[in-house]
Write a structure and sequence with these properties.
The chain folds into two domains: about 190 residues, 2-enoyl-CoA Hydratase, Chain A, domain 1 (Alpha-Beta Complex), CATH 3.90.226; about 45 residues, Lyase 2-enoyl-coa Hydratase, Chain  A, domain 2 (Orthogonal Bundle), CATH 1.10.12.10. It is about 50% helix and about 15% strand. The strands form two sheets. The protein has a six-stranded mixed β-sheet, with helices on both faces. Helix 1 links the parallel strand 2 and strand 3. The mean pLDDT is about 95. Bound molecules: coenzyme A (COA). The site of coenzyme A has 16 residues, from helix 2 and strand 6.
Length: about 260
């Protein structure tokens, strides 16, 4: 159990909340460790995962600047690796992850949102890779995932200028998929997560893996990967049930 990370289940939907509101949910080492544990605990049980921040100001205001200010070079290596491991665990989580960006998402907070599958922002969200003004660069995936999400020019602008963009601008840049009223965010994301949790679980996991691989592989290799995943779903209960239900003109009862 951790006092800075909460993992709660509502049916098949898990919510991981970074709960350090007095520090605007900044991620120090114990918080990263607790996130890693929570992600491990949720694997297998969660058919969709929501990631968000506690309090009414911040999603995650970034890596912990007080802690970083006193780090040795060796400690900075370990902190970078620990951050990478958590972001990679979000990215490879075997069910869709939705970032409910309910406020400030700077530095590591932006990177946490980038590692998720989908991003929904409250109209109060402000997002940025602000590390440049601390004399560093994004170190938990921001230089890589941001380019893939918003393209080279926009990523360079965000990383070079450290600009903080509001929710509407983030939507226009493709940094988030949707902006909703602040008070509607939790319900809206819960509904999305429940919809995803009701989809065929293995097909959804395969879909996520295949799209993730589009960022890792060349197209020919990616197509081979897709073909293997596609065929691997044939013979599963959900494949038979989904197709039979369509032909019988009824709702499918997925596993
Ligand atoms: N690391 C450590 N502490 C942080 C933090 C971070 N990333 N972000 C905020 N905090 C702390 C503040 O130091 C402050 O602590 P205090 O109450 O002891 O003074 C507390 O959280 C509240 O933040 P504060 O700055 O007073 O709130 P605000 O509403 O005036 O401003 C922000 C909010 C997010 C605009 C501002 O805190 C900020 O710019 N944070 C840094 C963001 C950043 O660069 N993150 C990238 C890190 S890689």
């Amino acid at each position: 159990m951790s006092d800075t990370v909460r993992l709660e289940f509502d049916g098949d939907v898990a919510t991981l909340t970074v709960d350090r509101p007095d520090r605007l949910n900044a991620l120090n080492e114990p918080t990263l460790e607790a996130m890693a544990d929570a992600l491990e605990d949720a694997r297998g049980d969660a058919r969709a995962l929501v990631v968000t921040g506690a309090g009414d100001k911040a999603f995650v205001a970034g890596a912990d600047i007080s802690r970083m200010s006193e780090m040795s070079v060796e400690e900075s290596h370990a902190y970078c690796e620990q951050g990478h491991a958590v972001m990679n665990a979000v990215e490879s989580f075997p069910a869709p992850v939705i970032a409910a960006v309910n406020g400030y998402a700077f530095g590591g907070g932006c990177e946490l949102a980038l590692a998720a599958d989908l991003r929904v922002a409250s109209e109060r969200a402000v997002i940025g890779q602000t590390e440049i003004d601390l004399g560093i660069v994004p170190g938990w995936g921001g230089t890589q995932r941001l380019v893939r999400l918003v393209g080279d020019e926009t990523a360079r602008r965000m990383v070079f200028f450290g600009e903080r963009v509001d929710a509407q601008d983030a939507l226009e840049l493709g940094l988030v998929g949707e902006v909703v009223a602040h008070d509607d965010l939790d319900d809206h994301v819960a509904e999305m997560a429940a919809d995803l949790a009701a989809k065929p679980q293995f097909a959804l996991a395969a879909a996520k893996e295949a799209v993730n691989q589009a960022h890792e592989m060349g197209q020919r290799e990616g197509l081979d990967f897709e073909r293997r995943l596609w065929s691997g779903l044939f013979g599963t209960h959900d494949q038979r049930e989904g197709m039979t239900a369509f032909l019988e003109d009824r709702e499918a009862a997925f596993e």
